[in-house]
Specification:
Elements: E1 2-6, H1 20-34, E2 38-44, E3 52-57, H2 71-84, E4 90-93, H3 100-103, E5 110-113, H4 123-128, E6 134-137, E7 150-154, E8 173-179, H5 186-196, E9 200-205, H6 211-223, E10 228-230, H7 239-244, E11 246-251, H8 261-268, E12 273-276, H9 281-284, E13 291-294, H10 297-304, H11 312-322, H12 325-342
Parallel strand pairs: 1-2, 1-4, 2-3, 4-5, 5-6, 6-7, 8-9, 8-11, 9-10, 11-12, 12-13
Helix pairs in contact: 1-12, 5-10
Length: 351
Amino acid sequence: MRIAQIAPLAEAVPPKFYGGTERVVSYLTEELVALGHDVTLFASGDSVTKAELDAVWPQALRLDPTIRDSLAPLAMLLERVRRRADEFDVLHFHLDYWPASLFARHNIPYVTTLHGRLDLPELKPVYAELPDMNVISISESQRRPLKEANYVGTVLHGLPANLLAPQAIEPTYLAFLGRICPEKRPDRAIRIARAAGIPLKIAAKVDKVDQEYFETVIQPLIAEGGGVELVGEINESQKPAFLSGAKALLMPIDWPEPFGLVMIEAMACGTPVIAYNHGSVPEIIDDGVTGFIVEDEKGAIAALRHLTEISRDVVRATFDTRFTARRMAEDYLTIYRELTQANRPRLRLVR
């Protein structure tokens, strides 16, 4: 198939550090190429891919200090795709609702994967105006706040099978990975680790919007006692050792997580996950097999006492069965084919 993957311009594909959406776009694009498909990636010029790269902007907007209006490059991206749309069998966007108005008028099938939270009140009227926009959810739980959208499928994320692997490291600490922000609740992770008497390593970025939270909540909490190491933001090459050295990944979230890529990153390294029962967690974690699903800090502390019941080999084997990029690509290809066989851009599939 001739497939266009249209990524956000905020980060490179793949991102240099944090960037879940762009990371998934990269995994999907490379796997589609490996499967023999003709793929064009519309992304920033500092992206790296085996597909054809249409570099809409010279570098990721996050790394471009001259950018003041981030919507201007987005408009340019949409126009670039419109001009080339007839070259493809299907257009796959990762831009939320932005493509809908323009590409609903086009004769090429298109679909958008929704990567973010859908419980924001302003989204309901937007999607009410876009009833025929083909969208894909990344978990069933993601759909709950916005059931009226035209979902044509759910595709769980996947990682390249050989991207992360268990390392021969004795697990000695608990891990927190991703982003320091109120909804991820690193404060809970600190309290859980201290109550359990296990060191905690936090490998996470701090966005500007979360700087005040970090300085007023997390830094003072770390300073209250020992046992917590702030590692900072890490890249993919650092993750295998970081996760393999952890007894468990703590994910004490306080929001409806649409997917949670860090959970399958941990699983790829054979590391169990202890996660709060929110959002996609029950769809990702097999309770008692790949980790434990808990309701509160007390439950998380209790779960830590049962980690010896979890086989790290089974955790990795479960990843291989459920969360590889090959499985993700095959799921998307099924949807692409259904859209192209319908020979029209708007389609309501029954699933």
